Amino acid sequence: MRIGLITEGGYPYVSGDAGLWCDRLVHGLEQHEFDLYALSRGRHQEDEGWVPLPPQVGRVRTAPLWTAEDDGVTYGRRARRRFTECYGELVGAVCAGAAPAVDGASGQGARGGVGAGGGAEDLADRFGSALYGLADLAREKGGLVGALRSDAAVRTLERACRAPGALRTAREARVPDLLTVTAHLERALRPLSLDWYGDDGLGAADLCHATAGGSAALPGLLSRHFGGVPLLVTEYGVPLRSHYLALGPDAAAPAVRALLGAFHGRLAAEVYRCAEILTPGNAHARRWQERCGADRARIRTVYPGMDATRFAEVGESADRADPDTLVWVGRVEPAKDLISLLHAFAEVRKEEPKACLRIVGAPVGPEGAAYLGHCRALAAQLFPDEAEGVHAVGDNPVSFEEIGGPEAPTLADAYAAGAVVVLSSVVEGFPISLVEAMLCGRATVSTDVGAVVEVIGGTGLVVPPRNPRALAEACVALLHDPERRERLGAAARARALELFTVEQNITAFNGIYLQIVSHCPVRRVVLDEAGGPRPFAAPAESHVPGRWTGPTARVLPRTAPGWATTAPVRATPLAAAEGA
Fold it and tell me: Is the Cβ–Cβ distance between 575 and 53 less than 8 Å?
């Protein structure tokens, strides 16, 4: 079958958030054909280029989410009225109520909030109808960038905020707030103006697989709207949660936070309503989806797949570990709470004077660099250099290292150095470093955040976050008991090999692909020589070695939009050039 894989800020770019698991998925499913539709996040990402692509990638089409020039489209009087009506309905649904909530008894989506447009279901219908109305207008007239940035869009939003029944916080919006929200909505709705939805794009796919929710799933929604292509949405993070965290009290005014929170809540609910299947990466993401109206019957948890081979040697030789060493591995940033870890290690040293702590990781951005400097200063204060005599130079029991250095040339070497791996985060989604430690057969001590308990499954010790004393007691307990460490490490490795490998991930998605296409085949107008319908864009016979001489297909003509002028890019030649 042909899969339209939609990514945002990830695959096939070299520096992509979700690039690794997408790359493994595409390489692992060589029996299918993939077309990539990539939304980039910045010029730097585009300049770095793509990773080498396998032959089963037929073509790649890209579009920037970080910038958009005015398309120069001038609407006539009727088109302007049509835009105002559709955009007014969309922002009216946003201003009239908050994001959907979940019915705790049934688990089904109970649309939240009642506003100017009527009941909760009416608001959801208004939002969806307006969204597809704007998409229809963009397809017919050539784009929405100029219209979404226009004064008419600002005035339409202002009327919605002042309408009877609007959110109290929305009614308090001032002109700067309206301009901020209008600019954000223009960026979020840019996929509506893309030329990806015809027979030469996503309309030719048997299945659309969006690798994130939110704006990244909009192309999948539109391919479903225009061509009836079924949609699969994978969320290893939760975009709605990220928006809530990003729009904190210090980041935006109350009216801006309320309006953008309501918009992203409505968009998430529409994505979850239209997707044939949702695949969260853990139970934490699953609960967010259910609260936004997702039907439990259409949710399948698929854990991220990780390459176990690079940790095999360490996992099978536990004797490499230093019995007195604790190891922390990850990105250095405030959410990892290394401050609590250092205070906990000070308590550990009281019980185990020979204990050492190795912190292995690089800072993330300027904030991470400043945080690393603060951690170094705290370590120097808590653990002055210890020396045997007044003329000797002592060593600090805490070391700060990066992967690739002489002490930790590879990631596996970093985990191999210690008897216990520690995770001290206060915020965590799916803990990749914890799974890596499990694949290395290491006993772990973790804070109870995100999907940690779900991942560890009883094969490690879990303590409350921001509790240095509890963290220290758990570490000391494992340092004092080598047999327990060995039992927990072996159990952790067995669990990781069963649940979190690349093979498990690929097998799960292949089954889901087949399930969706078997229940929701695309009813495109493609006929074989006998005049019968052909269900798949790429028939199975096309993958048989040699030349297939079966009956040829004829595609009934379908009018393409005049503004869809961007031609698809063949991926294989460019991949070869990148590899060279």
Answer: yes
CA–CA gap between residue 82 and residue 119 (Å, rounded)? 24
Predicted pLDDT of residue 381: 92
From CA 46, how far away is CA 49, in angstroms rounded? 6
Question: Is-contact 142 71, C-beta < 8 A?
Answer: yes
CB 88, CB 137: distance < 8 Å: no
3-class secondary-structure state, position 135: helix
- The answer to whether residues 106 and 33 touch, using CB atoms and an 8 Å cutoff, is no
Closest CA to 459 of 486, 425, 424: 486
HEC secondary structure over 284-316: HHHHHHHHCCCCHHHECCCCCCECCHHHHHHHC
CB 561 within 8 A of CB 139: yes
Q: What is the pLDDT of residues 120-135, one digit of tens each?
A: 678 889 999 999 999 9
Cis upstream peptide for 482 (omega within 30°): no
**Structure confidence at residue 37 (pLDDT):** 96
Q: Are 342 and 438 in contact (CB under 8 A)?
A: no
Asked if the model's pLDDT at residue 234 lies above 70, the reply is yes
